[in-house]
Design goal:
single chain; mainly alpha; Growth Hormone, Chain: A; 15 helices; 2 strands; 79% helix; globular
Length: 456
């Protein structure tokens, strides 16, 4: 008999991605401008750092997946890492946003070390967290539901960050330097993230175990992964999707600071919301609406078609963004809402499809390597973000960007390209790649039924 999952467990699972997404949104939006305008290193140096550190980090994801698959504790294979890594995760986040009194070369070395450690900590907690989705329930509907809760909480975490991060920095700047303000803000965010990860550890449960007759065999696991075509399709589409998101996120503060000329949109007694904060909040809110619509739309069209149509629509709308005049803020906000809605729909589907790929691998080979399969999700996420972040910063350097100065018309044009055509092309590629995904909802019902018979 399959144990029914509770609402509390779905909520508990969601808290984990709220924590990860808080940090991920900071990496995407605030880290680039922190490095160039506060920490004091060039855009080109930051772009190169993001790519160089990824050489190790790309290998780190499947390694962590392999380690998880071979972990056996009273809490399961994946949950213990939420307990063990939560506090180091928060501490390293603070160190990454700490500005030491060093020379330029010393700062670059410090940035390389702390960024590498942060990505390792992110892998160590996020690969097990993502893999947990594959072992909490056999049922495809439960998995889509878990993935939807995950995405709702992810965007809730992102909304929290876009609403409090810049206002907290501005508030601390009343008494401290800008660099110290970033550090203190990260202390608050780190404590929140630690609490969220611990809630996920306490409220979730692993129900699916490795087949009893399966013996550890890394060579076989890698061989099976190499033959898992749906996994490779999801990897490719996931990378393109994250490039689409990371370029738009990475350039947004530059777009508002140097092109729109960011100012207070709403002023309260204790803080103010700038045009960029409203833009970011609107994006996260409509992302969340897209997440909530994902299950019903995919039930009507199927996961693959829903994903594909959403990405094609996002590509078209992104290209339109280039032609909007900076005075037309309402149209800028409208396009942001529509593009973010499309992006929101696809993420629950992507995580649910990774779980399907893990089942497909077990059905085809008789071996289950959930951690290795799900490490693709973390790998594609970080690889896509890194490529997108590097592209953003290199293009800024190419177009002559200078921190804290008036930008040339050529630089402004480059910033507009990065808000429109560059992410638009990435979204188009993502939609084209997912066209080749062949694990339909109907086929997965048959695979799951077959696996249930085998497990009995």
């Amino acid at each position: 008999m399959i144990e029914k999952v509770s609402l509390r467990e779905k909520i508990g699972y969601g808290f984990g991605d709220a924590a990860s997404s808080m940090f991920w949104k900071i990496f995407s939006i605030f880290l680039p401008i922190f490095y160039t305008d506060v920490f004091g290193i060039s855009a080109a140096a930051v772009g190169t750092m993001l790519l160089v550190t990824r050489i190790w980090d790309t290998a780190n994801d499947p390694i962590m997946g392999i380690v998880c698959d071979r972990t056996n504790t009273k809490w399961g294979k994946f949950r213990p890492y939420l307990l063990w890594i939560a506090i180091p995760f928060g501490i390293i986040g603070v160190l990454m946003f700490t500005t030491p009194n060093l020379s330029l070369s010393g700062k670059i070395i410090y940035a390389y070390i702390t960024y590498t450690l942060m990505m390792m900590a992110y892998t160590a907690i996020n690969v097990p967290y993502a893999s947990l989705l594959g072992v909490m329930s056999h049922k495809s509907d439960d998995r889509t539901s878990f993935a939807s809760y995950r995405m709702i909480f992810a965007f809730a975490g992102s909304i929290l960050i876009v609403l409090i991060y810049q206002p907290l920095i501005d508030w601390f700047k009343g008494s401290f330097s800008e660099a110290t303000s970033y550090q203190f803000t990260m202390i608050i965010v780190g404590l929140i993230a630690i609490c969220f990860f611990l809630i996920t550890f306490l409220w979730t449960k692993e129900r699916i175990s490795t087949p009893k007759e399966q013996k550890n065999n890394l060579k076989e696991d890698i061989k099976n992964l190499a033959g898992n075509i749906p996994w490779f399709i999801l990897l490719g589409s996931g990378v393109a999707t994250l490039i689409f998101n990371s370029v738009r996120d990475g350039v947004v503060l530059y777009y508002f600071k140097y092109y729109i000329i960011d100012d207070a949109a709403f002023t309260f007694s204790f803080t103010m919301l700038t045009f960029s904060t409203v833009y970011l909040f609107l994006g996260q809110a409509t992302n969340m609406i897209g997440v909530m619509m994902a299950k019903s739309v995919s039930a009507l069209l199927g996961k693959r078609k829903t994903f594909m149509y959403a990405m094609f629509t996002a590509a078209f709308l992104s290209c339109l963004f280039y032609f909007v005049d900076k005075q037309n803020l309402w149209l800028i906000y409208l396009l942001q809402a529509l593009i973010s809605f499309c992006a929101g729909i696809i993420f629950p589907l992507l995580w649910s499809m990774y779980a399907d790929a893990a089942d497909y691998s077990e059905w085809k080979s008789g071996r289950r390597a959930t951690g290795l399969v799900f490490s693709a999700s973390s790998m594609s996420q970080k690889l896509g973000w890194t490529i997108g972040g590097s592209i953003t910063l290199w293009l800024l350097a190419l177009y002559g960007f200078e921190a804290n100065a008036d930008q040339s018309p050529e630089t402004i044009k480059g910033i507009k390209y990065m808000m429109s055509f560059v992410p638009g092309v990435a979204a188009l590629i993502s939609g084209l790649v997912i066209m080749f995904y062949r694990l339909s909802d109907k086929k997965m019902l048959g695979i799951i039924a077959d696996l249930e018979e085998r497990r009995k």
